Structure formats: structure tokens, C-alpha cells
Give the backbone structure.
Amino acid sequence: MNEPHNTFSTLVCRGIRGATIARENTRDSILVATRNLLEQIIAANQLAPEDITSAIFTLTRDLNAEYPAVAARQLGWHDVPLMCAQEIEHPQSLPRTIRVLIHWNTTLAQHEIKHIYTNGAEALRPDRFAGSK
């Protein structure tokens, strides 16, 4: 019988996804957009840096003025392993998009994780945001 794990008492590593769109390809725009996204993820999931295993940021090809990981460091993620990469090009991709995948140690069940898409990036997940506009 395939019963789901009772994660309410077991600490596990879960993924939190998020995405946002920067206004332009400038250092300030990338950092502001990333900080705002991370602050929303932190608030929605009550994250503490010591519970974050690692985070991977990706940017679309049209963003290269700054690493989004700098914004995480500005928020105090000094000991969290961070990585930045370029998103795979796709003809239908949204421009100036910053994505994040945070690996988080938590006792929450997968369905309790709050993924955040903002500033037009909601279009990346129409299954989650249908009817929100």
C-alpha cells in the first residue's frame, strides 16, 4: 500500500520554486526583483537561513548585469550554498526572468509549500494561477 509519508514529525528536504521578472538588465533591477521574490518566499514559508540547504538561481539570456545570488547574500544567506546559471533558451520564454529553486529542510508536507511567482512570472504556471488576472 502506497501511503504518503507523515512529514509532520520528520525533517525532510523540500523544494520551493519561485520566479519573477526584472524591469531591465541592470544590476539594481536584478537585485531588487530577486530580493522582492525571496522576501515573499521567506514570508510565505517562514524560512530561516539556517534551514536552507542550498539555492539555485537561473536567469534568461537577456539578464547578465548581476548574479541574483548577491540579493540572497544581502538578505543574510551568508552560509547558504548558492549557484547561478543561465536558463535554456526557448522560443516562448518570458523575457528578463529570474527563477529560483530553494532546497529547504522542513517538516511540512509537499502540498503545504508555497511557491511564489510574481511580476508577470505567474504566466509560467497557469495551472496555479488560472483566473488570477
Notes: The radius of gyration is 15 Å. The chain has a mean pLDDT of 91. Residues 14-129 form a domain with the 60s Ribosomal Protein L30; Chain: A; fold (CATH 3.30.1330.40). The longest strand covers residues 12-21.
